[in-house]
UniProtKB/TrEMBL annotation:
<feature type="transmembrane region" description="Helical">
    <location>
        <begin position="60"/>
        <end position="81"/>
    </location>
</feature>
<keyword id="KW-0808">Transferase</keyword>
<dbReference type="InterPro" id="IPR003362">
    <property type="entry name" value="Bact_transf"/>
</dbReference>
<protein>
    <submittedName>
        <fullName>Exopolysaccharide biosynthesis polyprenyl glycosylphosphotransferase</fullName>
    </submittedName>
</protein>
<dbReference type="Pfam" id="PF02397">
    <property type="entry name" value="Bac_transf"/>
</dbReference>
<keyword id="KW-1133">Transmembrane helix</keyword>
<keyword id="KW-0472">Membrane</keyword>
<comment type="similarity">
    <text>Belongs to the bacterial sugar transferase family.</text>
</comment>
<keyword id="KW-0812">Transmembrane</keyword>
<dbReference type="InterPro" id="IPR017475">
    <property type="entry name" value="EPS_sugar_tfrase"/>
</dbReference>
<feature type="transmembrane region" description="Helical">
    <location>
        <begin position="101"/>
        <end position="123"/>
    </location>
</feature>
<feature type="transmembrane region" description="Helical">
    <location>
        <begin position="135"/>
        <end position="153"/>
    </location>
</feature>
<feature type="domain" description="Bacterial sugar transferase">
    <location>
        <begin position="330"/>
        <end position="519"/>
    </location>
</feature>
<feature type="transmembrane region" description="Helical">
    <location>
        <begin position="159"/>
        <end position="181"/>
    </location>
</feature>
<feature type="transmembrane region" description="Helical">
    <location>
        <begin position="333"/>
        <end position="356"/>
    </location>
</feature>
């Protein structure tokens, strides 16, 4: 059931209740319901992840432009050396050492340069794209690819000379262009009228700690990372403004992230295991990156990877779901599989629709409001398996609920189910129209199972973690027993485990396990 508006004044958005768990907000055209800060952050996560992806795409695009410009500069210089009459006095030996335009200076070198730098990792984030080692490794590979054929046609000596000449010229030009680009972007970001692409960074640590101050100064020096404030590991008793602005404590992290637009959290010191788990859950829900000065790998679902900013080493702590690229890949797989699936089973869908119409009066499809990612409400499609008006009878049959939990309402031999409906439920065929929800972007092939909006009233804070991903037609809960799992905490655990462990291989594994689970019909009623 939904909560009616209380008689007492309603706290404004951004205010927590006495329990400290929920934010009261008014949903347009709907009664008041209580939304925790975690769900507010989940709704914002997609945009945050998109901004990370756009920054990465912009960086790669600008670097490729700068590298092609470096190649054109070197090519123009070669052309001057080869054709200028003012350089006629150069002796034959000097001209012999200059690579000809047809090989090292040819257009094939431009493509090879981009490929070589890409393989060498010179387009990665952090300091990798500024790395002298990575740039020259990419140039060495690119020139080698182009001159490999000449080695057999022109002999070893001239090719070796041209190889090192080209590597030196191209490598220097690429590094100079990237240095200029770096300084140009840093200056543009400081212009107030320029829409800054700088990552907004929140530091976790004490502003008075010398080690934390070093991290702050290093990140703020170049202006590419904008520091918005600090979060203290303990209850803050520090200034609330200025360079040492303290936004709150780690225990109040959900509200701090909700009221401050943050792209990246930097952990400057150590926190205990409880705070680390809270920190990781918060950044995962918000789509925010987490960088740690020290290595943290005590959480089994966290993947640490080294990264550096301005020669300052960090460990980036992430989970598979915290990547915009993975979200796009998952969405692409959903679109392709759902589209092809609907085409392949269209004859079966037609037969089911005819059977439903012949069996009982009423519509073929049944649309029901469910809660999706970030608490958003959508209408989930199913084949109708019950008689018309079955929802109105739910309260009368509550005593038959085998789980004893209204959030897991399941009745064996439900008297409301029609004859065709019983067959469809037995083989899970009533779920097939949800492929339409997948095409709409409301669901995924694999994910947490969507529940009713009324269930949110009885959710405890950790239950909202299962709203951090698109709901799925199938998932860990379904392949682990479906209705035979009657403890809601087990359902939440399985859904959160899926979110933390997500990978395309895990999706494939669940999809492959779904068919045997359907054939076994365990918990299907």
């Amino acid at each position: 059931m939904r909560v009616s508006p209380p008689a007492s004044p309603v706290p404004p958005p951004g205010t927590t209740t006495a329990s400290g768990r929920f934010l009261a907000v008014a949903v347009p055209t709907k009664p008041l319901w209580l939304v925790p800060p975690r769900v507010v952050l989940q709704r914002r996560a997609a945009r945050t992840l998109l901004m990370h992806a756009l920054r990465a795409t912009s960086r790669i695009f600008l670097l490729i432009v700068a590298d092609i410009a470096a190649f054109l500069m070197v090519r123009a210089a070669l052309n001057v050396v080869q054709t200028s009459q003012k350089l006629e006095p150069l002796d034959a030996a000097t001209r012999w050492a200059v690579p000809p335009l047809g090989s090292a200076g040819g257009w094939q070198m431009g493509g090879a340069l981009v490929v070589g730098l890409l393989i060498a990792g010179a387009y990665r984030s952090g300091d990798d794209w500024r790395s002298l080692r990575r740039v020259f490794s990419g140039v060495l590979l690119a020139v080698g690819l182009v001159l490999w054929r000449d080695l057999w046609l022109r002999g070893l000596a001239p090719v070796v000379v041209h190889y090192f000449t080209a590597v030196g010229g191209l490598g220097a030009a690429v590094m100079v262009n990237r240095f200029v680009l770096d300084r140009l972007v840093a200056r543009l970001i400081r212009i107030p009228a320029f829409h800054s692409p700088a990552e907004r960074v929140m530091l976790v640590g004490s502003p008075d700690d010398p080690a934390s101050q070093r991290v702050h100064k290093r990140l703020a020096h170049f202006g590419v990372l904008e520091v918005v404030g600090w979060v203290s590991p303990t209850v803050p008793e520090l200034p609330s403004d200025g360079p040492g602005k303290v936004l709150g404590s780690v225990d109040d992290l959900w509200n701090v992230l909700q009221h401050n637009a943050v792209d990246t959290v930097v952990l400057c010191g150590f926190v205990d295991d409880v705070q680390m788990k809270l920190l990781m859950e918060a950044v995962v829900s918000a789509g925010v990156r987490l960088l740690a000065v020290s290595r943290y790998d005590r959480l089994g679902w966290v993947r640490p990877s080294p990264i550096s900013y301005r020669s300052l080493p960090f460990m980036e702590l992430t989970v598979p779901s915290l990547r915009a690229q993975q979200m796009w890949v998952k969405r692409g797989v959903d679109l392709v599989c759902a589209g092809l699936g609907l085409l392949a089973i269209s004859p079966l869908l037609s037969l089911i629709a005819i059977a439903i119409k012949l069996d009982s009066r009423g519509p073929v499809f049944f649309a029901q409001e469910r809660v999706g990612q970030g608490g958003r409400i959508f209408r989930m499609m199913k084949f109708r398996t019950m008689r018309v008006g079955a929802d109105a009878e739910k309260a009368k049959l509550a005593h038959l609920n085998t789980s004893g939990d209204a959030r897991l309402f399941k009745i064996p031999n439900d008297p409301r189910v029609t004859r065709v409906g019983a067959f469809l439920r037995k083989w899970s065929l009533d779920e097939l129209p949800q492929l339409i929800n997948v095409l709409r972007g409301e669901m995924s092939l694999v994910g947490p199972r969507p529940f009713f909006e009324s269930d949110l009233v009885n959710y405890r804070e950790h239950h909202f973690g299962r709203l951090g991903a698109l709901p799925g037609i199938t998932g860990l809960w379904q392949v682990s027993g479906r209705s035979s799992i009657t403890d809601f905490e087990d359902v939440v655990r399985l859904d959160c485990e899926y979110i933390h462990r997500w990978s395309l291989w895990l999706d494939l594994e669940i999809l492959l396990r779904t068919l045997p689970a359907v054939l076994r019909r365990t918990g299907a009623y």
